[in-house]
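Researcher: Batch entry, complex prediction.
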Amino acid sequence: MSEVLATLTGVSKIYQKGKEKVEVLHNLDLQIPSGDFIAIMGPSGSGKTTLLNLLGGLDKPSSGTVRVGDAELSSMSNSQLSHWRSTNIGFIFQFYNLLPVLTAQKNVELPLLLTNFNGKERAKRASIALDIVGLGDRAKHYPRELSGGQEQRVAIARAIVSDPALLLCDEPTGDLDRETADEILKLLQILNREHGKTIVMVTHDAQAAEFANRRLHCDKGTLEAREVA
Amino acid sequence: MKYFGLIWKNVWRKKIRTSLTILSVLVAFLLFALLSALGYAFKGGEDVADAERLVVINKVSLINPLPMAYMNRIAATEGVQAVTHASWFGGYYQDPRNQFGQFPTDPYEYFSLYPELKMPQEQFNAWAKNRQGAVIGREIADQYGINVGDRIPIQATIWTKADGSRTWEFDIEGIFETDDPRGSTAYMLFQYDYFEEARAFAKGTVGWYVLRVKPGADPVQIANAVDMQFANSPNETETSTEAAFAQSFAKQFGNIALIVTLIMGAVFFTLLLVSGNTMSQSVRERISELAVLKTLGFSDRSVLGVVLTESIVIMLIGGLLGLGIGWLIVQVIAGAMGAILPGIYLTSRAILTAICIMIGAGIVAGIFPALKAMRLSIIDALARA
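Model: Structure tokens for the complex:
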């Protein structure tokens, strides 16, 4: 593998639930090489999503450091993190999280509103992203007019439209049937192999994890992250 | 501006709810437009008042007359350049509903005091020569179709003639206009001599005097000097600027400004509750979408701005529609009832005030939902979704 894209060093995350402190991650060390496709598996509450949130700069560790590329996320302010996310990270959610009031095209253009591209350039780039996920002909459709698989493809187009290095996928096939799920996973594989995207995918689904290059297992929500294959 | 497409789509996400909110905003600003124009009609004289003109009335009230003998004494007061007088006639034309102001006065003196009134010289001369002559304003001429050369009857409600009749006939010798676009021409002027000769009572009196101060003279000092002359007489005077006179005249109808303020206060308070509720609901039902925007990299301030702008846009749509419809209605009223409500007019100041209120109300209604959206925790919101 090539250079390291993301490094977690001694990362712990503690949540306060009422009077109780819950340690979700404990002293976790992890390196993610650029161009890798990692599947993180584990039971609910094991800290998979927390790990994803830390990598995406949505949350900060209680201790330890998270570095992605040149950015040391633990020391960045919220507004710095917002700006950083807009150019460096693509998020893909289980329930797609498209804006129902916008067409597929406009949903994909959303991250580009944060750039200096003009309307024409935004539209052009969104069209390319939709073509990559095979939905160029659905640009004018609203999310309610699309199937679950198509919605997830639009969400993937939205995630890649600003050309981020790292894609973070939280149960991307959790709401899809097997056949559609496999199509989505193949698409992720293409993005990884042909477009060089580094992908970290959280999943419960062992079959989905098979599409990744590496599979890590988070156990009991604390401490452990071990390679399973 | 690049967020406007997103904002616009969000505004219309629930079409019925947004339409109803816009309708309530529309009604509020329609009321604002109508009440502002009405308020202006009642106090309109204040804005067109000439600072160098003073009005002298009976200290007891405007209804009580003043002796005609005061005329020369006022004219002789130091600093007074010219004086005229007028009285309230209070008649109607053909039908009791056709009421407009009629004032007996002296043609030469009156037109020298009111240079903004314009009329062809030959019409003025004809009026000055004819004791039963009268001139009418353009608004009256247009509304009742009266032309120069017509002889019109005015039915008196106060001034019975010496022969017991209440019908006064006038030859229309001219039609005057005004230079001031906000000034009214919805009244009639006729010769005081005819009035004085024919009326049955109160002879030798006038309703009020209007004087012009010499350039550079102090109007306050002159007003005091005039009032001092008639102090302790049976008819003490009260001299004030034209604006103050217009104000006291308007107050005969009640404190219009206070009534307008109270009504609008109640309307806008309700409006804030309605639109604030709309915005709160709108934010509540798309918490996860706002979290997604933040996940994509929208800053806290951007999210605050998006929600706040939505609130302002709703106010502006409803407000401008309401103001527009209000303006149209005011135009129709001004055309149909110009004689009864002269000077009914939606001023540019009122329009500007309304737009400021729209933006202010949008901010007030949207600020709490917008702050909620801004402070939203992405992780909590996504977990709840």
